[in-house]
Amino acid sequence: MKYIVVILDGAAGTQLPEMGTPYDGQTTLEAASLPVIDLMARQGRIGRARTVPEGFEPSSAAACTSILGYDPMRYAIGRGAIEAAGMGIELADDEVALRVNTLIIEDGLMSSYACDHIETASSRALVEELALELNDDTFTLHPGIAYRHLLVVKGHPELLDVQFTPPHDITDQPIDGHLPRGGGSDGEDGPGAELLLSFMERAHKLLPTLPANLDRVAHGLRACTDLWPFWPGVKPTGLVSFNERFGKTAALSSGVDLLGGMAVLFGLKRLDIDGVTDGLDNDFVAQATGSLEALEGHDLVVIHIEAPDEEGHAGSAQGKMAALEKIDSQVMTRVLTYAKQHADEGVRVLVMPDHPTPIMLMTHTGDPVPWLLWGTGITESETPAAAYNEYEAGATGILLDPATQLMELLLSDGDVELEVIEEPDAAEGADPGDVAEDRA
């Protein structure tokens, strides 16, 4: 048996508002044209799963850990440490790794959490120039992909007590009250927060003078104004490899270091496929082809696609639908063809988002997400779903909590059995009857 997991990062969401468009009142999963995924939903089983435990920040770190079959409460790894692993950085015992964004703050507002989605080459040049000025015995900046970079701080474990706000949570909002804070007595800023605020101020003063930023301005682009550290983590211990946990060999493809870091930490082979990025410029065909070829030497492959999440953060319904439609036509068609060609061997497929990224919120939520299981040993439901979306999944009454059960179901021997464990429901904010009327 071969297994394929397709993670549609941030694909779930809520209804779009009335704006005079044909997709008003629908989620982007509903509005997008997804003939292949919808066919698989009719032939397989769908439901909902809680990928983010109650009380956890709804980030891809916890959500994708769940999808891979690991309890994020037991394997709580700070995201900075995961991204460090993805960048090939081995942390010392006294180091804290933080994700750091290049971004734009104007008039005290978070104007762009991604520095207008800066290209990797430009962003790396900027961070490399900053590193020449800021790196010392305490701080080390490491350039990453697009706007995502890493800051390693030595000898300051108190950073783990600091409170952080991810910059994508406050798009077009004041930054006041969201800078690194706390960690001291009586809720005051402690030495960790003060250390980072000082570092951020130094970066802010340097950025306007750097050649890479001046080059952006010369080409009619906005300069990056600031660095924003968040999501701290330390060297993880006690991890169990995917092969040890499930007895299967696995590979993973992704355009972001977070998933690459998970591959490193959980012992999946990280695939290096040309053209794989974090956005709509991703080479979806190359990613699908290269990932499926990896099944020649592995039992399971994970295809993680970041583009829907990026478009969700940008508040672009059309962009998010375009990403989903590219996945359907360029990735899922090839998954379906592979499954048909290897039917004698057996193929199972799991398709799901890691978390919702609703267009109107432009950030993640921890609501349950729809999942789809299809393939060998997964029989059609007695009342097949009409399509793959939040409402159809909610109407099944199947909620898997925690979502770690999905990997166990995917890899289980024999036929997959599912039972209704809650009253049928629809996605938050929607009425199942209204949805049925709209489709009639």
Q: Would you kindly provide a brief summary of this structure?
A:
The chain is α/β, with parallel strands linked by helices. The chain contains 15 helices and 13 strands. It has helices at residues 28-31, 35-43, 60-67, 79-86, 120-134, 191-206, 211-218, 242-246, 257-266, 284-293, 307-313, 317-341, 390-395, 405-410, 432-439, and strands at residues 2-8, 45-49, 95-106, 109-112, 139-145, 148-154, 226-233, 250-253, 269-270, 300-305, 347-352, 369-375, 399-400.
What are the main properties of this structure?
13 strands; five-stranded antiparallel beta sheet; alpha/beta; 440 residues; eight-stranded mixed beta sheet; 2 domains; Alkaline Phosphatase, subunit A; 15 helices
CATH T-level topology of the largest domain? Alkaline Phosphatase, subunit A
Domain count, please report it: 2
**CATH architecture term of the largest domain:** 3-Layer(aba) Sandwich
Under the CATH scheme, which class of the largest domain?
Answer: Alpha Beta
Order of helices and strands: EHHEHHEEHEEHHEHEHEHEHHEEHEHH
Radius of gyration: 22 Å
Shape: globular
User: What is the CATH superfamily of the largest domain?
Assistant: Alkaline Phosphatase, subunit A
Mean pLDDT: 92
Percent in strands: 15-25%
Helix content: 25-40%
Would you mind describing this structure in some detail?
By secondary structure, this protein is an alpha/beta fold. The chain folds into 2 domains: 2-75 and 239-439, 3-Layer(aba) Sandwich (Alkaline Phosphatase, subunit A), CATH 3.40.720.10; 84-233, no CATH class. It has helices spanning 28-31, 35-43, 60-67, 79-86, 120-134, 191-206, 211-218, 242-246, 257-266, 284-293, 307-313, 317-341, 390-395, 405-410, 432-439, and strands at residues 2-8, 45-49, 95-106, 109-112, 139-145, 148-154, 226-233, 250-253, 269-270, 300-305, 347-352, 369-375, 399-400. The protein has an 8-stranded mixed β-sheet with strand order 9-8-10-1-11-12-2-13, sandwiched between helices.
